[in-house]
Design goal:
Blueprint lengths: L1 H14 L9 H27 L3 E2 L3 E13 L9 H16 L6 E9 L4 E18 L5 E13 L1 E4 L2 E4 L1 E5 L3 E9 L4 H15 L6 E5 L7
Keywords: Membrane, Transmembrane, Transmembrane helix
Protein name: Stage III sporulation protein AG
InterPro entries: Spore_III_AG (IPR014195)
């Protein structure tokens, strides 16, 4: 009670009133206005503190191994250039096709897209962070942030570091042209196309077969 009376005495002294005089309407208005402003300031203070408290969930991570295509071999390396692959395919097809009955004097042109492709081992680490937020109206929401980090697995080989190669893929063949005697026969032409598509694993629309003209006797 003494504290409350002391508080009101201070207010009266600020308003210029003594115990014997009653406060005027104007002074009551000032008192109500001061109390209202103080209440609003205290309310905003607590509300802002609630908005700034976000719960951070520890980041969870997992590791896995993953393979991916990387650099292609350049010309002059042990695997050979594009022209070396094309020449190898051409020689093999010519040798095989000339053994087919009714087929002779075969010429082959093979067009490859690139040299071989190496697939290397990769470590993939994924993490996620969840942030919980609360607004002034009491609404809650969660914001999730995910991250992925990939690194090629490197090993020491002699004096240099090299990636771990898990697979080597042959170059993709863009097109094949076969010119041979006997290809004017529809059955022989069909046999040539089926042989090339099965051996090289290319679709039939990438294989063209034409009949070679006979050389005139001298």
């Amino acid at each position: 009670m003494n504290n409350k009376e002391g508080f009101f005495h201070k207010l009266k002294s600020l308003l210029g009133q003594s115990d014997s005089k009653k406060p005027s309407k104007y002074q009551y208005f000032i008192l109500v206005f001061v109390l209202g402003v103080a209440f609003m300031l205290v309310s905003n203070l607590f509300s802002s503190k609630d908005n700034q408290t976000n719960d951070i969930v520890p980041t969870s991570s997992s590791s896995s191994n993953e393979s991916t295509e990387v650099f292609k071999q350049e010309k002059g390396e042990k695997t050979g250039s594009i022209s070396d692959y094309e020449a190898e395919y051409e020689n093999q097809l010519k040798e095989v096709l000339e053994t087919i009955s009714g087929v002779g004097n075969v010429s082959v042109v093979v067009n490859v897209d690139s040299t071989e492709t190496k697939v290397v081992e990769k470590n993939t680490v994924t993490g996620s962070q969840v942030t919980k937020e609360t607004d002034r109206e009491g609404g809650k929401r969660e914001v999730e942030d995910q991250s992925t980090d990939e690194q090629v697995v490197i090993i020491q080989e002699g004096e240099k570091e090299v990636p771990i190669v898990v697979q080597t893929r042959k170059p993709e063949i863009r097109g094949v042209l076969i010119v041979a005697q006997g290809a004017d026969n529809i059955h022989i032409k069909k046999t040539i196309i089926e042989s090339v598509t099965r051996v090289l694993g290319v679709p039939s629309h990438r294989v063209a077969v034409a009949s070679k003209k006979m050389k005139e006797d001298e």
